[in-house]
From TrEMBL, chains A, B:
The Gylcosyl hydrolase 115 C-terminal domain, residue ranges: 777-943
InterPro entries referenced in this protein's UniProt entry, alphabetically: GH115, GH115_C, GH115_sf, Hex-like_dom2
Domain of life: Bacteria
Position of the signal peptide: 1-20
Protein name (record): Glycosyl hydrolase 115 family protein
Upper taxonomic lineage: Bacteria, Pseudomonadati, Pseudomonadota, Gammaproteobacteria, Alteromonadales
Organism of this sequence: Bowmanella denitrificans
One Gene Ontology molecular-function label: hydrolase activity
Length: 949, 949
């Protein structure tokens, strides 16, 4: 086939109600618009008076079509063409005016709207034109977005430049005659904040462009426009956008990007500009005149440019003001800033877009009563870790300036910076930004993307969702990674690639790589670190298959977008995993200690090798881009370089000797170290439905092999072997002969003898219970562990409902309490609930651990609560945020979880129903654990309990 | 001078009332007996019928005199000599009989006594004999001891063979005509147990003698006789004395050594003989006939030999019997054993010496009522760590068989074996064995000396004290090491050598090297590990001086007896000290981590090099003797070899970077690791009488140097420097400007900035109090620390008294509660007390920590108590052993201390008198600490508090 269904694969990505059928003909019928045909091609028409930004987009379209088809279409003021693409924005296109005037084009669907565009085929619209494809914008950006929509549709990824995504080559491009589409954004300002820019982005910029100049920004702006964004906070660490290169601001305005300055840089002036030009201290209380003048100059400079003015003031370098929370002073500052704006622009200050960022302590000013005029947009922020702190109340939603959200994919600060690769799952972004949309924080969505480069996927999702928040539901957001993979790499491997993307991001969402330490994942319990290692290894193997299968043209892009983040994630995990084993084996004095030290070195070097490979792609196209140090964090700040951890090193006796040690599953303790402590080695208790095999590990502390002998004190204790030779280590598996046991708790010993006198004695306990009743989750190994998504949902209604969010949380399955924005549960009102049928052999007061998303109480006066009910007991309301300490918050963002514990009273063993009642929306439940006495410390918690069918 | 005052230096060692003046003439007058003169020499006479053991001793005397003077005296039945030495034992010497009969010799002082001897010059005793020097024994050993007394007096150390102590050469030897001496032992059986014999002793024996045969034992027996011992338990691990070499038992009997078998080997049969010849199990309940016959053979074999029969039975290999504590069975066993003895020897079983060792669980049998006949000696034991468990009650003292003590200088067992070098201070041996003497456990003193070789000093002391327990008082025992050093190396360096000996033994007495671990001595508080390091370093320097000064002939001996144990002790300490620093620096991620790892390796190798040097002395004369593994203990059993500890290893970033860390004195915490923990760095509080300087340590975690800046929040905080360059680490000393401070507690901060954003903040607190009143120990740094020996003693009386024991305890100064054996304090009776005047700035309920010797309650029904009184409050009685747990005992023997804590109530600040009242004898107090809130963990406790004069 010569032509291709160019839009097909992208449907899911497109946020407008345009289906493939609207655009395409499988067989180009006579009526199809021929963009590039077998023997013909369209011309592109653009008015002379068209805005430069639109012209630039049109030129890019020509270039994109050429990349796809090899054909360079003519672009100009010539309409003489059988097939004509007409590009223009209303009021800036004589041709569009004429078509409208002649009744040939109806633009009522976009006219007067913000950034709307319309794409439509017209028959015989102009003399000599058989067919036209009109791309009309309600305004400049409307037209630009229309153009880039076509660009994307024919197979040019927005990331073609920024991630080397190859253009999909096609010989022909047809558009169905019936194609007709109208689209416009739902969030007004959609943008990114280039932040945390050194060393990675900055060194790359310096090498490629010399500085943060227009040659650099043109690529950023184009990316934004292709992603249908319109707003930006520029890099500001050691940079001053408008001052570094006077072309920067002009270029932004020309291309259609509304510039702002970051939340703490008021009045379109960069923080660094004060260093360069400011006189006196950055203290408004003592240096008002100089600062006032400084701001005046900012307003003046941007008088002709489309801008969104940040108001307010913080200390320099994004620190709180030294004045502290001086509300009076800040109110004066805002008043002065608005005076400047009104002096510079117009008396109708409402015409000048302004934003007040309620970031960090500034939110406190607001909560304590400080207000800004109604026309200023209130920019609420997350907690820097993706959890929105506050959304508009019903009252606030009436404000004319509306509200927005400042979100983070990257952050420099406590409890621990995350500045490297992507760590934010799509489901989490969706869940939080969906709330923002629901609570009408829809004026500005801006996200801190750090260095930009490694955040391609979440940035793409965030901006698409900003364009149309309703395009994604809890259910459909989970398909995004596959759709995105398909756009970048074609449909063939999209499912596998999505598995890899989802996999590494789920891992990083559990805990950011910067915060993963040797003791994060348990090497003792639930084989936790081992399971995570296996997960990542399986992904790495899949990655290798995909990498091998993908054509060479995809390799660079694939490495950047998929392979590198996965493999580097794995390297950081394995480095820490092996460090934990190195330390434990070192403590136990094992001969294997150095093997793990070598593994730590291997994974450290592996990480270096991977970033080296990244930097060498395409002759160094992305050199420096992965140079952000990420190994060796000890507190909030990143280490000055990736730092190899201190490892434990073992040296054997010069003359080989043998020296037995014995460890048991689930314990750091080992024989003989336990003897002086007076502590027994003991296997975790065996239960009928629990783990049926547990190991004793007999290890050598020295180089000479030895023979061990193992014996049991009772016949019901079974050993996989009773003697063997130990070189380095050897596991004996212990199991229970349940048939030989009566009901009740039994106790026995395994004795292990090896080198020298004495030996290890290991306690074995087995509790034989009756059979459990079917249809229940059953207690075993001292706990019941439940995935929220395994609940049965009852009582959902139109105003409140529990809903699963696939892809969310540690296990990629959470359940969210959702409700209408102003829903407040009324006492005695039936509430939707989750129900779990349980079967316990124990009775008593037990801890119930609830693991929830670390969401915040974003509605003043309403908490984040749910209610826990057991059987027919009255449900007990639980305030998830009852611990409001900084410490608890820090723990929650490090864990990516808020852990809450309550007590439940199982008055008797047997069957029970555990119910979780909806109280406040915003609660997202991941996991529940009933600790009946055997719960062991771990990061991910025990695996889900057995459900007996 | 041609002649020398040969006895002078030894007076202190000799236990008989023989002074130099009795023996010597400075100028040989006409009346002096000439042993070896300028031109003449004596003959030695011994009767033909003299016992072979006496003859052997006489031959050794000839050989000893030849070593000293180069002159070989004639020995035989010829009396024709102007100067004649007459050697004999009563009843076995015709010459002595004749002299007695002729009234020329009065032996009434020794006649009929056990092992007594008499040395006396006689004028013209026989025809042609101008002068005779008579050495007469009341019995065989009496004569032998007399001979070896002369040997020792002329300058032959008992250790000449076993420690290569050079004989002091002299050209002449004279004995004053008035010389007249009588001596006899106070303890009947005095001996050693060769135990713990592999790998060191056994491999040496195998290489030198092939086996534990008579060629080996002859040296052991001679040593024992020279030390005036008479009893021995032979090596038994893989040996059977009487079976390995049939000459062994015959030789012992001939030389005069009474053989026994160890506490768990009854009836003169070695444990290992059962393995060789026993039929059936070692279970008397099931295999009586075979075991009975086995024992009969033992009695029969030793029928003609002087033996001390061990009765009773334990399991094999020194384990409890598998029967458990079956008293009935054990009584049957003893009855059967006595039947065998009476069948073999005589109906009067009381003529056959027998001992029942009340070791470990066997003591329990006794305490629960089991008894053996009155003529059997009860051998009480220590707790294997030098603390006697039990001494005879007044009732038990009436038993005809009497009692003895089995003591340890070496032990294989829990909580931790000690099998290497000497760890038992003389003062401790004296204190415990003095009690044994006081409580009339005087029938047997036997000590486990392990491999024998490295225990020269304590063995010498133990056996000398066994000969005459009253020769040493609390005060004079402290001079022993100097006297001993003088005997081995001459008087010139004796004081220095004694300092070295006392120093290393005090160190090992604090904690045995086997039990020293990285965290034993605090690297954080009181500069503890640093002070110990300095102590040992000073001793090592002194050792080097002495070694250099000593003539070559002494070098081998000096290395064995002095240099090696000191330097190897130092190596073990420094290995652990540097391991602690390695771990701390590793945890803190310091660039210096590897320096300490290298130090650990250095000291590990140093230890190997020292034992290598020992093994190479005199062409390998002591090869294997120091091969006992002693580094790498993790529980009671020794490691299979000296094992290099696992160390922390650091690898810097490939491209040098700088990375600041900050630590403070007294804390493991360091910046920035403290930030995520939410803990402040803080210096210990400053007080007026406390430490006046404390440091902040600014360190580099990487290779590139950096500059730091430090500032204070208040002018009263003084810094030694406020900026500087840090290569590896740099200390800033913080002090307080007290003049600038008002009374009360003040708080401020030191801020340190170095690499990157942020920096460390260190809390500084200073409490200014009024001046303290003179004449008191003053509270500072949150405690008062008192040496018991700094107390003033009041109220001592004839029946009970406090007395200092120099050389005892951690600091070499303890005070002992002493009393008559059956003293029991009566309520309201005034008791002797120790008094400390204190000055406190604090008031409240404080912990008072008492550090006491780990002595046990050796008298049934009487505890180990003292009473604590504050000012005029009623003294509160404190039971030192109130915690009777195995755990508490283990801790006490590991620490060499029993730590007891009580509460005292200081109702107000100011002056107080703290008093410790005597209640039970046996209490030995070392140190007292009043914790007013600032006491930090350490091993040795804080240094003694300031006494204001």
């Amino acid at each position: 086939m010569k032509f291709l269904s160019v839009m097909l694969a992208l449907t899911g990505l497109l946020t407008a109600p345009l289906s493939a059928a609207d655009w395409l003909t499988e067989q180009p019928d006579a009526s199809a618009f021929t963009l590039v045909g077998a023997n013909s091609q369209a011309r592109l028409y653009i008015d002379k008076e068209a805005l430069p930004g639109v012209q630039r987009a049109a030129h890019n379209l020509v270039s994109d079509i050429a990349k796809v088809t090899g054909k360079t279409l003519l672009l100009g003021q010539q309409t003489q063409s059988e097939q004509l693409v007409i590009i223009g924005s209303l009021g800036h296109s004589a041709v569009l005016d004429r078509l409208i005037a002649e009744g040939k084009l109806d633009v009522s669907a976009i006219e007067g709207r913000w950034e709307a565009y319309q794409i439509k085929t017209l028959q015989q619209p102009l003399p000599g034109v058989k067919q036209a494809l009109v791309i009309a914008g309600s305004d400049k950006r409307g037209a630009i977005y229309g153009v880039y929509s076509l660009s994307e549709a024919i197979g040019v990824s927005p990331w073609y430049w920024w991630a080397d995504v190859p253009v999909k080559r096609k010989s022909s491009l047809y558009v169905q005659a019936s194609a007709a589409m109208v689209d416009a954004p739902k969030v007004k300002y959609r943008g990114i904040f280039l932040n945390d820019e050194a060393p990675a982005l900055t060194n790359w910029v310096k090498e490629k462009f010399g500085d943060y100049n227009a040659q650099f920004y043109v690529h950023v702006f184009e990316l934004l426009l292709r992603l249908k964004a319109n707003y930006m906070w520029p890099a500001m660490w050691n940079n001053a956008f408008a001052d570094d290169d006077p072309s920067n601001a002009l270029l932004a305005d020309e291309m259609g990007i509304v510039m702002g300055t970051s939340h703490h840089e008021p009045m379109m002036r960069a923080d660094k500009e004060w260093n360069r030009y400011g006189e006196g201290p950055w203290e408004y209380s003592t240096n008002r005149d100089n600062i006032y003048r400084f701001w005046q100059q900012g307003a003046q400079r941007h008088k002709q440019l489309e801008s969104l003015f940040t108001l307010g003031m913080r200390g320099q370098e994004d620190e709180p003001m030294s004045e502290g929370e001086n509300i009076g002073l800040l109110e004066q500052i805002v008043a002065d800033q608005r005076q400047i704006l009104s002096d510079t622009f117009t008396d109708d200050i409402r015409q000048v877009p302004q934003v007040w960022a309620l970031y960090k302590e500034v939110q406190g000013f607001y909560e304590r009563g400080m207000r800004v005029p109604d026309d200023v947009t209130l920019l609420w922020a997350d907690d820097n870790f993706g959890n929105i702190r506050r959304l508009p109340t019903a009252e606030e939603r009436k404000r004319s300036g509306g509200a927005g959200v400042y979100y983070h994919f990257d952050y420099v600060g406590g409890p621990r910076s995350y500045r490297w690769i992507n760590t934010v799952p799509i489901a989490k972004i969706w869940e939080q930004m969906h709330l923002a949309w629901q609570y009408q924080a829809d004026r500005i969505w801006i996200v801190n993307v750090g260095d930009l480069k490694p955040m391609e996927l979440p940035t793409d999702f965030f901006l698409r969702m900003a364009w149309n928040p309703t395009a994604f539901s809890a259910a459909t957001q989970a398909a995004f990674s596959k759709q995105w993979a398909s756009q970048q790499f074609g449909p063939e491997y999209a499912a596998d690639i999505a598995r890899i993307l989802d996999g590494y991001i789920r891992h990083n969402g559990r805990r950011k790589p910067e915060a993963v330490e040797a003791d994060t994942y348990s090497i003792l319990h639930y084989n936790e670190a081992g399971r995570v290692s296996t997960e990542l290894k399986a992904l790495a193997e899949l990655n290798q298959q995909v990498e091998k299968a993908l054509p060479p043209v995809y390799q660079d892009s694939y490495f950047q977008l998929v392979a590198y983040p996965l493999l580097a994630t794995q390297a950081v995990f394995e480095l820490n995993h092996n460090l934990a084993l190195n330390r434990l084996h070192g403590k136990q004095g094992r001969v294997t200690t150095n093997d793990y030290a070598n593994q730590v070195r291997y994974w450290f070097n592996r990480d270096q090798q991977l970033s080296g490979q990244y930097h060498q792609l395409a002759d160094g196209r992305w050199k420096h881009m992965m140079s952000q140090p990420h190994i060796g964090y000890t507190y909030w700040r990143n280490p000055p370089a990736n730092l190899m951890p201190v490892v434990s090193t073992y040296a054997p006796a010069a003359e080989p000797v043998a020296d037995m040690g014995v460890a048991v599953q689930g314990s750091e303790l080992s024989w003989p170290l336990n003897e002086p402590l007076g502590q027994d080695l003991a296997l975790p208790d065996f239960t009928l439905y629990g783990q049926q095999q547990r190991y004793i590990e007999i290890f050598n502390k020295q180089l000479k092999p030895f023979t061990f002998n193992a014996a049991t004190s009772a016949p019901w204790i079974r050993l996989s072997q009773t003697t063997g030779d130990v070189n380095q280590q050897q596991r004996i598996w212990v199991s229970i002969d349940w048939q030989g046991l009566s009901e009740g708790t039994h106790q026995g010993w395994v004795h292990v003898q090896g080198t020298g006198w004495g030996g290890a004695r290991i306690l074995v306990k087995a509790s034989k219970t009756p059979q459990a009743v079917k249809g229940n989750f059953v207690e075993a190994d001292g706990y019941i562990s439940l995935q929220a998504s395994d609940a049965t949902i009852y009582g959902n209604h139109a105003r409140a409902w529990w809903a699963p969010i696939p892809g969310h949380g540690y296990a990629g399955q959470s359940v969210s309490a959702s409700a209408h924005a102003d829903y407040v549960w009324q006492k005695d009102e039936p509430a939707p609930y989750l129900e779990f049928p349980l079967y316990l052999f124990s009775q008593g007061q037990f801890d119930l651990h609830l693991w929830l998303a670390p969401s915040l109480g974003f509605v003043p006066g309403r908490g984040l609560r749910l209610a826990v009910g057991l059987d027919d007991q009255v449900p007990q309301t639980l305030d998830i945020l009852s611990d409001s300490s900084q410490q608890a918050w820090q723990q929650s963002v490090l864990d990516g979880l808020r852990k809450v514990t309550t007590r439940i009273h199982m008055t008797q063993a047997g069957q029970h129903k555990l119910r979780l009642y909806l109280r406040d929306p915003g609660v997202v439940l991941q996991k529940l654990i009933v600790d009946t006495g055997g719960l062991q410390p771990s990061y991910l918690g025990p695996p889900a309990s057995l459900y007996i069918r």
